[in-house]
Amino acid sequence: MKQVISNPFEILETRLMQVQSIVEELAKVKKETSLQLVDKPEYLTRDQVAKMFAVSTVTIWDWSRKGVLKAYRIGNKVRYLKSEVLLCPRPIYDTKEGANHV
Questions:
Q1: What pLDDT, on the 0 to 100 scale, is given for residue 31?
Q2: Which InterPro entries match (predicted)?
Q3: Do 82 and 52 belong together in one domain?
């Protein structure tokens, strides 16, 4: 059987405590889920980037040297952040000269 509360302030206090416990529970769930959703950055090799753009690895090295792509050295390996590669503009081919213009 439910307890009858006659004082309206007691009713408000009870409701506020219920809301507070719900908010605390939601905050805990949000914190746990946000920790699970943290993505690790995905790195690509020169070969993978070259295949994406259908160019040679020498071209990828040249683009890195020119600053078109940002290369990251991890140990003795060179890698490219996938998110940055996807934002990189594609080369424009000059039909008269046949050269890449970056």
A1: 75
A2: DNA-bd_dom_put_sf (IPR009061), HTH_17 (IPR041657)
A3: yes
Q: Are residues 51 and 81 in the same domain?
A: yes
- Is residue 41 within 8 Å of residue 26, measured between CB atoms? no
Q: Quick one: DSSP state of residue 56?
A: -
Please say whether the beta carbons of 52 and 85 come within 8 A.
Answer: yes
Q: Which two tokens stand for residue 62?
A: 């040249």
Q: What is the pTM of this model?
A: 0.51
Q: Are 51 and 77 in a shared domain?
A: yes
Question: Would you say residue 6 has pLDDT above 70?
Answer: yes
Question: CA-CA distance, 28 to 89, in Å (whole number)?
Answer: 42
- Dihedral angle sign, alpha carbons of residues 85, 87, 93, 99: negative
State whether 30 and 55 are in the same domain: no
Q: What is the pLDDT of residues 29-84, one digit of tens each?
A: 877 766 555 667 899 999 999 999 899 999 999 999 998 899 999 999 999 999 88
Counting Cβ atoms within 10 Å, is residue 49 exposed (0-12), middle (13-18) or buried (19+)?
A: buried
